[in-house]
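Please fill in the sequence for the structure shown.

STRUCTURE ENCODING:
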């Protein structure tokens, strides 16, 4: 039985947390004892993930370390991890990674990196915090026993940060379609999507790094270019730019055609009536939102950047546009919605099933766990053989045995 503790920043339904949930679901409980710790308090936004973990009978505990409070409270975590045998601590994010390497003295430390670090720091933090993270996080990652990169672009960025090649493993991001998020429920909340016309959608956080404003501008271009077409833009998610995006839509004269759905739990219902799903981020690992849409056979449009271009085969399983070019984004949207260039749903769904399934991702992660533990056991054996008074080499054993025989017959 391999004993694993997952150390997460929170239990909110963000992409990385859902990825960890999918991993936990597919690890065989007869071979892996799983438990989850989170740094932030558990609140009303954690209901879905908490409910799923309880359904899987996985113990959950909040460490009550919001923000950067974890920097000064690692001893309590170390005592918690030392209270019972733990083989591996698997973390995500700079705060959790720091607690992992400082506190998990007896366990192997593993992390999953889901972003291109140098870009993520600038997009996620202010300039001062970005400068601190750019120095601190690579230092932390170098102390990890294994760093899992969810895309080739992330793997390359880790090398650029000085992480040793032998410490990096590439396991592509994955999506779990057995999760109830992807089960059609036909709730009334999204019934309005089924109206006639063309429907464009975005699924994710409403933050500056996602550049949802570009989607709104490109959509407004189509609305004004094709005034006779019935077009609707659906934005699912919460975030700090919710009001800014509403004002932008109002200023562009499309406020009545842009609908804000807030946080969506059952994504299958939201995605089911969309004709096109769009992402315009400046940086991604491999975006979960597009994987979710593609797994349901939806035509998707994303920027030609690292991570996205590993997910989408342009013209076959989706479309790519030039990042930062609003006109190219609008043109590609127009070609799908007005030009009849939607792609084969079966081909798109099969692409996700064969290359980005949670089952395959969990199997590869389980192999990483087993290999790490085997390597540690081998190192321990080598140290034991080299210690004074340890087991004798075979030749010395034979000589000792021969001397014993001679003394016995003396």
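FILLED IN BY: designer on duty
SEQUENCE:
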């Amino acid at each position: 039985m391999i004993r694993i503790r997952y150390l997460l920043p929170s239990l909110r339904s963000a992409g990385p947390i859902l990825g960890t949930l999918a991993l936990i679901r597919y690890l065989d409980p007869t071979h892996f004892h799983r438990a989850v710790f989170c740094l932030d308090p558990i609140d009303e936004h954690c209901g879905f993930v908490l409910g799923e973990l309880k359904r899987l009978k996985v113990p959950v505990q909040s460490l009550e370390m919001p923000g950067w409070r974890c920097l000064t409270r690692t001893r309590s975590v170390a005592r918690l991890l030392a209270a019972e045998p733990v083989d591996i601590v698997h973390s995500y994010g700079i705060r959790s990674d720091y607690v992992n390497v400082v506190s998990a003295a007896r366990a192997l430390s593993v992390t999953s990196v889901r972003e291109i670090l140098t870009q993520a720091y600038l997009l996620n933090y202010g300039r001062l915090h970005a400068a601190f993270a750019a120095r601190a996080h690579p230092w932390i990652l170098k102390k990890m026993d294994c760093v899992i990169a969810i895309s080739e672009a992330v793997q390359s960025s880790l090398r650029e940060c000085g992480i040793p090649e032998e410490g990096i493993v590439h396991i592509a991001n994955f999506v779990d379609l057995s999760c109830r998020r992807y089960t059609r429920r036909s709730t009334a909340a999204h019934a309005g999507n089924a109206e006639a016309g063309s429907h464009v959608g975005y699924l994710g956080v409403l933050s500056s790094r996602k550049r949802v404003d570009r989607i709104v501008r490109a959509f407004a271009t189509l609305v004004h270019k094709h005034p006779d077409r019935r077009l609707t833009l659906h934005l699912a998610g919460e975030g700090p730019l919710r009001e800014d995006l509403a004002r932008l839509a109002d200023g562009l004269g499309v406020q009545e055609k842009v609908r804000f759905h807030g946080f969506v739990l059952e994504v299958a219902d939201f995605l089911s009536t969309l004709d096109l799903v769009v992402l315009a981020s400046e940086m991604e690992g491999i975006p979960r939102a597009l994987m979710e849409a593609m797994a349901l056979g939806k035509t998707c449009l994303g920027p030609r950047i690292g991570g996205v271009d590993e997910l989408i085969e342009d013209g076959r399983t989706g479309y790519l546009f030039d990042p930062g070019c609003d006109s190219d984004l609008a043109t590609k949207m127009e070609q799908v919605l007005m030009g009849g260039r939607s792609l084969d749903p079966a081909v798109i769904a099969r692409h996700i099933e064969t290359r980005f399934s949670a089952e395959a991702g969990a199997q590869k992660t389980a192999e990483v766990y087993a290999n790490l533990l085997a390597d540690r056991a081998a190192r321990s054996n080598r140290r034991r053989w080299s210690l004074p008074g340890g087991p004798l080499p075979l030749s010395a054993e034979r000589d000792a045995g021969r001397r014993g025989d001679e003394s016995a017959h003396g």
